[in-house]
Structure formats: C-alpha cells, structure tokens
Amino acid sequence: MTAPQEFRWEPDAGADPTTYTYTFGGVAPVASIRPGTLLSTWTMDCFGGRVRSTSDMASEVCDPRLLNPQSGPFYVEGAMLGDTLAVHFVSIEPRESWGVSSTVPFFGALTSTPMTAMLHTSLLERTWIYEIDRAESVVRYLAADTPFTAALPLDPMHGTVGVAPALSEVRSSLAPGDWGGNMDTPEMRAGVTCYLGVNVEGALFSLGDGHARQGEGETCGVAVECAMDTTVILDVVRGRPTAWPRIESDGYIMTTGSARPLEDAFRIAHHQMVLWVAELTGQSAIDSYQFVSQTALTPIANVVDTAYTVVCKVPKSVLGGAIAMDGKHAELRRKAASWHA
Amino acid sequence: MTAPQEFRWEPDAGADPTTYTYTFGGVAPVASIRPGTLLSTWTMDCFGGRVRSTSDMASEVCDPRLLNPQSGPFYVEGAMLGDTLAVHFVSIEPRESWGVSSTVPFFGALTSTPMTAMLHTSLLERTWIYEIDRAESVVRYLAADTPFTAALPLDPMHGTVGVAPALSEVRSSLAPGDWGGNMDTPEMRAGVTCYLGVNVEGALFSLGDGHARQGEGETCGVAVECAMDTTVILDVVRGRPTAWPRIESDGYIMTTGSARPLEDAFRIAHHQMVLWVAELTGQSAIDSYQFVSQTALTPIANVVDTAYTVVCKVPKSVLGGAIAMDGKHAELRRKAASWHA
Amino acid sequence: MTAPQEFRWEPDAGADPTTYTYTFGGVAPVASIRPGTLLSTWTMDCFGGRVRSTSDMASEVCDPRLLNPQSGPFYVEGAMLGDTLAVHFVSIEPRESWGVSSTVPFFGALTSTPMTAMLHTSLLERTWIYEIDRAESVVRYLAADTPFTAALPLDPMHGTVGVAPALSEVRSSLAPGDWGGNMDTPEMRAGVTCYLGVNVEGALFSLGDGHARQGEGETCGVAVECAMDTTVILDVVRGRPTAWPRIESDGYIMTTGSARPLEDAFRIAHHQMVLWVAELTGQSAIDSYQFVSQTALTPIANVVDTAYTVVCKVPKSVLGGAIAMDGKHAELRRKAASWHA
Amino acid sequence: MTAPQEFRWEPDAGADPTTYTYTFGGVAPVASIRPGTLLSTWTMDCFGGRVRSTSDMASEVCDPRLLNPQSGPFYVEGAMLGDTLAVHFVSIEPRESWGVSSTVPFFGALTSTPMTAMLHTSLLERTWIYEIDRAESVVRYLAADTPFTAALPLDPMHGTVGVAPALSEVRSSLAPGDWGGNMDTPEMRAGVTCYLGVNVEGALFSLGDGHARQGEGETCGVAVECAMDTTVILDVVRGRPTAWPRIESDGYIMTTGSARPLEDAFRIAHHQMVLWVAELTGQSAIDSYQFVSQTALTPIANVVDTAYTVVCKVPKSVLGGAIAMDGKHAELRRKAASWHA
Is the C or the N end of chain B the one with fewer CB within 10 Å? Predict the structure, then answer.
C-alpha cells in the first residue's frame, strides 16, 4: 500500500472572526479533497480563542453569533447524494498547554435555558482554566472556591463533526442532527472512523470543537475546550446511504441519535443499531431487536445542545466476524499506519 | 471482625401466585432482619417462572397483574425515616441453566405503548430461551429466524431493588422511582452497595427481577430473565437521608434518576451527583457542577419502564480519597469477605 | 322519573389532619353508595384550609405529606372491574367568600422541580388571596407589588376526581393517571359527566381540590383554591371498561391523557378519541384518525403535576347524533334536573 | 387615513417546482415591500397541488424535498435586527372548491416517525378530498370505509408564516421555531396580527400552507390543505425585538412556543406571556406569573412537526385596557377596514 496523499489546511486565526465558518451548509468550500487524502488541519476552540483566563467571561468576550468556529468545509471529490463519507481520525492532539471550561448563563443541563424556559435568574457564570499536560497525559482541574484539585485523564476528541444537511437547510455549528454537527460524544477520538451520509455533492465536511476531555452528557454545556491539531483521512463509501452518523472503532460499532426528548435520541440510535446488526449478521429485524437489547452499551453524549445525543455501542466480538461498511475502517486504519511509519 | 449473622428466606414457588409480592409498600413484611445480617434468598424470574420455552408467549401464559414477583418485603430493625438502607450484594447467581427473554405486545422502547399511544398493531411477540453456562461464564443466544448464534458474557444483576415509597404510596414492582424499584440497571451486580432512603419504619426492602445480563436501555423491555440465588447484607446508615437511590462499587460512586422524559432522569442523576461530590470533596456546588461535567460516565439503564432510569458514575480515583456514606461500602465488603472465608 | 335517593357526607374539618384521605386506593371507604344516588358533600381546599392570608406560606404552615385531602372514598355498590363509574356533577359551589393561590418552592411549570432538577435557588414564595363574589360571579385578583387588580370570571371545578388504581397501587392525591386523580382540568365543572374505569370492587371514588377558577396549564401549580360544596350523582355503566378518564358535556365528548412528556399525554387523549369516535360513528380507525385531526380542540389541563394532563374535545354537533355511553350523560342530566325541581 | 398602497405578487404554478421557495432564509427576495403596504398574493397547498384525488398518494406523487412551497420571501424595507415585523391578515380565502388531507407514512402524532423511531410498519396511507363550500361556510368530510359524512365549519388559516432565522440558519418550511415557520396553529386566521422578530435586514417574510380548517394538534399531520387567496398588511414595529412569534386578535393577546418535548413549547409560550403581561400591566414578574396561571387559555397547535407548537392566550378584557405593541393591531385593523371600504 502506498502512503496516502497529504493535504494541509489551516484556519486564519488572525482574520476577522465574522469570516469563519459557523454553519453546516451555506458556506463555500475552503478546499477540494480527493478521497483517500490525509487531511491535516487545526481547529480553534469553541470560543474562537477569546476565553483565555479565569477573568474572561464568555458572555462578555464572545459574540453569541460567533461561537464554535469550524475548520472547513472541505469538498470531497465524487461524494454524491446516497454515498457515505468516511472520516478516519488518525490523530487528535491539543495544540496548547491549556484548556478552558465555563458555565454560561442559561446554557447547560442543570439550568433553565431559552428552550426550557423558567423564571429563575441565571446560575453563576465562571471560567475554569485547565493545564493540559501531554507528557503525563492528564488535564489538571483546580476548584475555584476551595483548594480541591484533580488530575483527569487526557482524552482528546472533537465535539463537532459533520456535513451539509439535507433539504437545503443550513444549521448552526451549535446544533447536532442527522448531518452530524455538534454531537459532543467522547467516542469521537483518534482511531475511530465516523460515517456521515452525504446530502449534497462534495459532502462539505467540517470539524471543530476540540475537547481535551468531557464527561458523558457534557452537563454544564462546556467541556475542557482547546485548540486541536488533527489529522483525518477522508474517503467515500459509494452507493451506501447512512441515515444517522455512525462510528466504528477497533472494538465497537456505534450509532448515534440526536433529538429531543432524550428518549427519541435513544430510539434513533437503537433503531439504527437494530437495522445495522440485522444487515451485518443476516438476522431478522425482530431477532436483531432482541440481540441488541442484550448487548448494547448506551452512553449519553450530550444533554445540552439544541438536540440531545445518545450513542449505542455493540462490541464486534459478538457479531460473528461481520464486516461493516465494506471494511472501510480497517482499510483506513492500515492507511493511517502506513503514514505514521 | 466476627462473621455476620445469617438469615435465609425462600419464596414459596408452589403457592398461589396471587399471594406473591408485586408492590413496594402495601404488603406486610415476611421477616424482620437485624441490621448487619447476611440475608440469603432466591428470587423468581419476572414472569414468575411461567415462560419456559419458545412456545410460551408471555401475553398468553401470564396474568398482567401478576408480573415481576419480589422476594420480601423485609423489615429492617431500627430503620427510620431519615435513615438510609445499605444493601450490599455479596453474590448474585443464576439458579437455573436457562434464562428467557421475549418481545411483549406494546411494551419496549421501539414500539408504541399504552403511554406512547399510537395506531400501530403490535410487533411480533416472540420468546427466546438462553442457555446459561456458568462454567464458561456466558449466556448463549440463538436467533430464531436464521442460524446466527452468539455467546455473551454472563453478568448477573437485579433489575428490581427497593423499599416502601413515601406519601403512603404503593407502587407496582414494574415501576422505578425514588424508592428504587424497577430501575433495571446492569450496575446492580455483586460487589456493589445500593443506598436507599428509608420512607417508613423498617424500610420494607424487597428485590427481584434477576437478569443473567442485559443491554443498557433494556431496549425490547425484557432482559435475559432468570431465577436468582442472591445474598445481601442489609445495614442502616443512621441519620443520613438519601433522596434517590445510589450505588457504590469499589471503583465508582453512582447516582440514579428515574423519570420521564429521559432528560429529567439524567437531570436527577447528575443533580444528585453534583450535590454528592460537593459534599465528599468540600467543593462549592458550582465547582462540583464543573467537575462532574468533565468526569461523569452516564450509561442509560432502561427506556421501557413506567419511568426511565439513568445512572451517573464518577470514578473514586478523582475524588482525592473521599469516603462516601461513612465508609459503609468498605465495611460491608469486609464483612462479606469474612463470611466467604 | 322519580327523584334520586340523596346521601350527605361531610369531612370532619376539626379532626386530626393525618386522618384525612390523601391517596387513591389504600383507604377504607367512608360510606357505601347505591348507584344513582345523589351524593352531596363538601371538600377542603388543597392546603387543608391552612393557608388563609397573604402571610401564610404553604411551605411553612403545611406538612408536605398532608396536601390535597379528598372527600371519600365512596364505595359504589355493584361497581366491578370492567365497569365504568359515571360521576355527574350537579353543582360545584365555593363554600367561602375567599380563595387562595400561591407560588410554592420548586413546584410549578416555570421553575426547577425535584423531577426537572436544576441548580437554581427557588423562586419567591408568595400567597395571594382572592375575593370570591358569587353575586357578581367573579373572583377578584390583587397584585402584590403594584396596584393592578382584575375581576376574573368565576368558573368552579374540581382538580382531583378519581377511583382506586389498578395493580393494587396506591397513589398520592397529587398524582393524575388512568384512575383520574389530580388532572386539574377546568373542564371538570358542573353539568358534565366524568367516566372513570373501575379497577376494584366498589370503585372507591373520591374528589377534592376545588378551584374557583384556573388557567389552562395551571402554570404556577396552584389555582384559585377553595373549599367547595358539591353535589354529584354516582352511577355505573356496566360491562363497559374505560381505559382513561372521559368527560361528557352537553356539547362535547372529551378524553384525557396524563403522562410525561406532555406529547404522550396528547397521544393518549387523541388515541382514546380516535377509538371513541370510531365506535360512536361506525368509522374505521384510519377514517376516525382523519376526522379527529380536523375536529379536535385540545386544551392543556396541567403541566405541573407528577404527570401532565391534556384534554381532547370533539363537538357532538359533528358526530351525526351518536350517543355515548348508552346515553348516561343525558339520563343523569335529567335526573339532576328532577332533583333541582 | 388614506388607503394603504397595494402590491400583488403571484407564484408561478407552472414553473419548475425546484424553483419554488421551501426554506426560511437562504432564498433571494421575490419583491421589496414598503412598510404599510397591503400585499395580496396566493399560496399553493402544502403538496404543491400534486395531490388532487383520493387515488393520489403523497408518497408517490410528491418529492419529499419539495413540500410546503412558500410565497415569498418578501423584503420589507427598513426592517432591521431588533425590530418586529407585524403581519396583519386582512383576508384568507380558499382559492378552490376542494381541499385535501391524507395520512403520510411515518408522519403524524399517532405513528412512529423518523424521530420517534420504532420497528412498526407504516399506517395505511390514504387521501381524503373535502368539498369546500364557501356559500355555506363549511367543508364536507366523507369517510372512506363507511358512509359517514359531516359538514365542518370553514375556518381558513395559514399553517406557515415566518421570517429568515437567526445565526445564518436556513430552515425547511416544514419546521417551526422562533422565526415562525410551520407553527400550524388555527389562531392564524383573518383578522389577527402576527408579530415576528426580525433577524436579518428586510426580515424576508414568507407564508404558505393554507388550511381550510384543522383540529388542534393537527393529529395526523395534515389539515384540510388548500390553495389560498390571502391579503396581508406588512408593517414594522421599530426598536422592539420579539423573541418568539406572537399573535393579537381583537379579543386576545397570544404567545407561541415551538420545541420538543411539548412541555418546553408550553414553557416558552407561558414564559413569554408572563413577561408580556408584566410589561403591559406594570406587574412584577411573580405577580404576572400568578395572574397568567389563572387566566391563560392554552390550546395545542401541532404535535407533528419538527418542533411542536403551543399557544398561550390571555383575554384583553382582564388586562385593564393595556395596549400591546404600541397599538399596531388596532392601527392595521383600521387600515384594512379603509381598504375594504
């Protein structure tokens, strides 16, 4: 196998922030990529780098219309409606030695929000700065009100990964849905392949919202946000549509659902998994329903975004050697290995 | 340490099924237990043993008013309103070499139900029988419509664990809530301690609904159901109320929430965890909110019962050595070890 | 037609409040009633009369375990599982010249609650006293912080009407469900007949929670609460089960659904209406679905109780003269008229 | 008062359907309108006129990407971010003597959908044709499976009314939200004024989805759909932002909320009403919360679209003569009257 073609694209952190990409759809591609290309880029943090110390409050230093900038969109040559875009994450590495989290007024799972509208005043707004120690592979948390500290495992991932939506819609990078977007699942880490259904010619792939780590649910709405150096291989699985984003790791196949209420996100993820396992193992739908009921892991991804996201995982070890997506994950894994060598 | 006092109680499988316990509250205790006692018992499967082959359909052989029989209730001496009942699971072992699962008309997460009422006809009703192989520590699944088979890890647990509810309510053993009940979380396995707030004198503890294993979400509504041989130590943490059931394992503290919609179950579990971590680490609530947001695991337990259940888990390794519930888990762990020895 | 037999029962307002009825199920009947009897009684307000001025705060003067006392339960002779209890409201009249409303910490639709758990502090607790002017048929509202006042139409109703639940459950009078209970719909006014499915011998009917009026949704959780003088006729429709409470007025047939999330309450109410209209008009289910889709009114009842309630109303004028429930409403209407005469 | 300037715009029903407007945002305006102009237009039905008989099935004759065409968008001169667009409906009249409704596979409130994903097969797809009799002011329903018929009051309205969304989003005309869109409330009838917050210069107003009538909830997902002749006056309330669409009639002020789950739509509508009533009457927020709790009517609009919509109505008669939106409704009412004369 020959090493993949490489392509580098960088956002211009010094440009006018209004020129960044804040939507899936509605933006002209920044580059055209041949399938199989190894794309290396970096992504700004969700605040566009504007929250840098514990005295920076997001509600003061950020324009609410300019949150969660994405790197892209990338036009993938030959990707057509009815195909699936395969995004293999070769590496995801924090770009700086610090990350940031915060509470944001009327945003998060344990607060009134504009959609779960109540008469409360907002919770306290606060910013926490984490040290990212790549040598020790930890992020260091410091409580603000007491001396409590903790070292948490570094586990870099992308909160936002997606393509242009269907129906000519243009969606904010704060929203998740069947186009991907702001799913905020910690499963989106290096080593996995994300499958996204193509809705428009060229797919128009973007990514952003790097997290040094996050808890499942992203409860306060903000993870350990950081700029991220990321390398992916973009490829196309032709003639195979994908209704909702899927992820494959070496050990698991995973489906996602993004909806409100949260049980509908659960239903989508499990419905997709029942269909996928039936296809992979040749089982009937009702048998697959039974089988998934006994084998699924079901971590919550986020309960804070415009839709909530649930992941359903089934271990490959129980699937009798079935191969998903024509073996695309293994193929891209090998391709990535050849590049690292 | 002296070995704990032992007590054995057995349900009468040959009795009239209308005499079994099907509620939390509303039933006279079957025995009175001194705190610290090692209680050994067994529990019938959720169908009361009436679904025994692939030709037995639950809707035909079971009375819908006589589902999910519980062993108990047990009156725990000295347990008072404002205390917490600690239930340490010493061992949970399938009693037979088979388990059963099924689809049940209008019950489950991917079907219309009486509460999510629609105009569809019911999905196909079917029963699957699993071989439970304790030597190999697996359960063996056989698809009905194709030759597909799989060996799945044996992971015994109790779906239903609880006490009498507050407000003089009597709740069906099919319902989960702040009294525990039918939470259907695979975290309720041997080695953990479950903490339940006491609502009435004597707590009135029952358990049942053994599962040889289940997936997270219990999607079709029925796990690998089986009769279970179970040993617990019952103890009381005095003067410490517990609003929602909690679980402690050697590695994790866990909270639960049971509600609809599912995001409210999430909110309860995470709200409880924020309060608990604040108490254990001395952090302020807002710092704890931040900390839990980055450290929680959040597996879904069930999306099929009268309320849905979510679990929130935080690893003890990040809590700086904090001790939960006055060290009751470690104490009961040691007590259990002394008994085994 | 001979006038109906009359029966009077009164709660003992001077008794120990712990002796009142606070549940559906779990309480011995206070009297046995022959079907067709005209039962006259009165009901305490939801606070048991303990909030009487703007300086009485419910959280201070009320025991949270002793809220919403019911008059009853009444054993209705001959009512059996599979029958329907018909409750015709002959008159509902405020007993005093004042009513009370309040905000209650962590209760209501626009506040965090124990089930929609958040980290906010509670909203301001406040009590409002309304003058009930029966001569003018209004209740008079006085704002607390400004001189604003308004006279609102008097529209007396019962928030809580129900029977003992199925599955041997005992439910708090704060909860609504398929047994009726705390539905909090303003449609439960004089002149209507409420139909409740019988779950236990004698039905065990209770009622309470009189409101001089309420808005649809009962947004803050508390209506214009008052003690109520009420007369009903209790009757039995034999051999006709009723899955969820229904209401019939001179102009409308109505179904109710009580569930969370609110769309499930909607689904239950509309599913029941589709089935009912199909039965009454002889239409197929799919035609009835179409017909209800164009003819239903759908006011929200409450979004504050342990389940939320939605009402579906279809005008009799479009039903081609169909007669519901064997004409029981018209029969009881006539019976009531004969009594008044 | 001089009669308003008039402007007529017509869609080209003979054009390539891909050229129609199917989104809010993302489309160049078809015309520029001076505030105060009386705009007369007509709108195609939601199927673009392609479902014309009981043998036309929407899933066969319609392209799912080409549903719910809108007339517009209209650029309103001088409308700026922070202003409110006032849309006064002068007349809404069915253009033909027939309307159409249908069941659509996996769409509606009493069926599994792609978001409430289940394993059921779809309900029966069927089309119903209604006669629209403007002389008698009724629509005539014919059941398909039995001879049942009914004449239902004609009550023309627009299901879809909106402006370009915020955050550079482009949203399908099937979606409702804070930009308006597919709210599907029968309150949007002739004689009311709809207030929409302006998100982009010129507002970019569109409307469509005429209904000869609909039930509250639009249960099966499709009303009595018809092409509509409609006249509106477009005007701007400067310097007054509107967070969620509001409606004013001669008798009521109304707020809307569109979200999932349905209780969040309720919360938004009631939260907006509490704020609005407080502003109009000078009451504090907590007094207004109490007042709205006793005075609101709360009909459900739709439980079928991508978000569900709830309306909150408070009668002007209890507001002490308060004037909303600087009296814009009365002003436009007079303007409309002068035109009719």
Answer: C
Q: Which of D218, D226, D270, D294 to mutate to test the interface with C (most CBs of C within 10 A)?
A: D294
Cα distance between the two ends of chain B = 12
Handedness of CA C31, C34, C39, C44 (dihedral sign): positive
C226 dihedral zone (left: phi>0; alpha: psi -120 to 50; beta): beta
In percent, the amount of chain B with pLDDT more than 70 equals 98
Q: Which of residues 174-193 of C touch B (CB under 8 A)?
A: 174
Q: Is B284 an 8 Å CB contact of chain A?
A: yes
Residue D307 vs residues A182, D180, D199, D304, D310: alpha-carbon distances, Å: 19, 11, 20, 7, 10
Q: Count how many Cα atoms sit within 13 Å of the Cα of residue D87 in the half-sphere of its side chain.
A: 31
Alpha helix segments (H runs only) across D231-302: 262-281, 285-295
Task: Mutation target for C interface from B22, B106, B119: give the one with most C CBs within 10 A.
Answer: B119
CATH architecture of B6-241: Sandwich (2.60)
Distance from CA of C151 to the nearest CA of D (A): 7
D129 touches D54 (CB < 8 A): yes
Give the three-class secondary structure for D139: strand
Residue C261: asked if its preceding bond is cis (omega within 30°), the reply is yes
What's the confidence (pLDDT) of residue C158? 98
Coil vs helix vs strand at A43: strand
Is there a contact between D285 and C132 (Cβ–Cβ < 8 Å)?
no
Burial class (CB in 10 A: 0-12, 13-18, 19+), D18: exposed
d(C-alpha B227, C-alpha B28), whole Å: 23
Nearest CA in chain A to C123: A120
pLDDT of C341 over the 90 cut: no
Class of domain D246-340: alpha beta
Please tell me if residue D262 touches chain B, with a CB cutoff of 8 Å.
no
Subunit contact A168:D172, Cβ cutoff 8 A = yes
Q: How far is CA B273 from CA B197, B236, B254, B295, B298, in A?
A: 16, 21, 7, 11, 11
Choose the mutation target among D63, D70, D167 for the interface with A, i.e. most A CBs under 10 Å. D167
Q: Is D11 helix (H, G, I), strand (E, B) or coil?
A: coil
Of D71, D3, D83, the closest CA to residue D37 belongs to D3
Q: Identify the H or E element spanning C275.
A: helix C262-281
Give the closest of D145, D219, D220 to C284, CB-based.
Answer: D145
Overall average pLDDT of the C241-258 stretch: 98
Which of C189-203, C214-228, C326-340, D210-224 has the least mean pLDDT? C326-340
Strand B171-172 relative to strand B23-24: parallel, antiparallel, unpaired?
Answer: antiparallel
Query: What is the value of ipTM here, to two decimals?
Result: 0.98
- Interval D261-285: pLDDT, tens: 999 999 999 999 999 999 999 999 9
**Torsion angle in degrees (nearest 10) through CA of B302, B307, B311, B312:** 140
Residue C3 pLDDT more than 90? no
Residue that has been written with the tokens 């307002």 in this structure: C13
| Percentage of chain C exceeding pLDDT 90 | 97
- A233 and A39 in contact (C-beta within 8 Å)? yes
Alpha-carbon distances, residue C108 vs C105, C141, D270 (angstroms): 8, 19, 12
Task: Tell me whether residues C300 and D310 touch, CB distance under 8 A.
Answer: yes
Kindly tell me if the per-residue pLDDT of A3 is higher than 90.
no
Residues 6+ apart with CB under 8 A from A322: A280, A281, A316
**3-class DSSP state of A22:** coil
Candidates 1.10.10.10, 2.60.120.580, 1.10.260.40, 3.30.565.10; CATH matching C6-242: 2.60.120.580
